[in-house]
Amino acid sequence: MPDQKKAEHEKVRKPRSYPAGFLTVGQTARVLGVSASTLRVWENVGLVTPARSNGRFRLYTTEMLGVLKRIKYLRDVKQLSVPGIKQLLGEQQARKTTSKQRKPAREKKSSKEETNLGARLRMARKRCNIGIAEAAEQAGISAGFLSAIELSRANASVATLSRLTVAYGTNVLELFDLPQRSNLIVRPHERRVLKTDGDVKMEMLSIGPKLLQCMMFHVPPGTGSDGAYSHEGEEFIYMLSGTIEFWLDEMECYTLEPGDSFWFDSNMGHRFFNASDVAAVLLWINTPITF
């Protein structure tokens, strides 16, 4: 009997397990900075429909988290009512569907040189003699996903790239496959480009600086860093167009608009997200070169 009671007690205390890539109501509420009851209200009025676990617990995907951030932005910043948010979200979805239907089967390659990110990440990992499982653990992703990234079957997010380069003892700059010689001037068609998960694009604006990392970020609507990351140094951002949310240490949130400039200590955990319906373009400078 004692053994049976002990087994039953351990069974009761066993933590629930959820599918990979899903967040619980509590986790989602903490990320967004809202209450769990607010999430239930948004579900009840039809703004979002979470998935359900076998135990019927609400679960949110990364894609759903992006929609929720958009809803929060429209409510808090744009001061829209629930019907207004519903209408705007519906219009945006219709535009996305139409855009996909009109997209040509094959697109012309950009004149800017796009780096083979997967191959360079694989080279960096092997140079450090780190296994896929160990590298994936340090980056907070699965070994299968890292393998897909290295085979160019998937793209890494900005946050994942940062964590991987830290694990490999390097930085994102080395992934651009830059020329050996310095260039005082870089023409638009000469810029090296990295495209991350969610089609966030990073264009290298300078070749050769020893202390400055100068890039232009293109952040489509509903995308961002996909998590927080940190490193040594300081960062300066100048907003060229669009708007973007910046979170520092999950405590401070800033909404940047065209013409705004923003400075912060890179040691602070930082993440960004474009909650608007237009692309954001940022001039982004790091010093020293640690990202």
CATH class of the largest domain: Mainly Beta
Strands, total number:
13
How would you sum up the global shape? globular
CATH topology of the largest domain: Jelly Rolls
Q: Give the helix proportion (percent range).
A: 25-40%
Please state the average pLDDT score.
Answer: 78
At the fourth CATH level, what is the homologous superfamily of the largest domain? Jelly Rolls
Give the ordered list of helices and strands.
Answer: HEHHEEHHEHHHHEEEEEEEEE
Strand residues, percent: 15-25%
Low-confidence stretches: 6-20, 103-111
- The CATH architecture designation of the largest domain is Sandwich
Number of domains: 2
Distance between the termini: 59 Å
Describe this protein's structure.
Strands 4-5-6-7-13-8-11 form a seven-stranded mixed β-sheet, with no helix packed on it. The protein has a three-stranded antiparallel β-sheet with strand order 1-3-2. A three-stranded antiparallel β-sheet has the order 10-9-12, with no helix packed on it. The model is unreliable at 6-20 and 103-111 (pLDDT under 50). Helix 7 (132-139) packs across helix 8 (143-150) and helix 7 (132-139) packs across helix 9. Strand 5 and strand 6 (201-204) form a beta hairpin. 35% of the residues lie in helices and 21% in strands. The chain has 291 residues and is α+β, with helices and mostly antiparallel strands. It folds into two domains: 2-101, Orthogonal Bundle (Multidrug-efflux Transporter Regulator, Chain: A, Domain 2), CATH 1.10.1660.10; 113-287, Jelly Rolls.
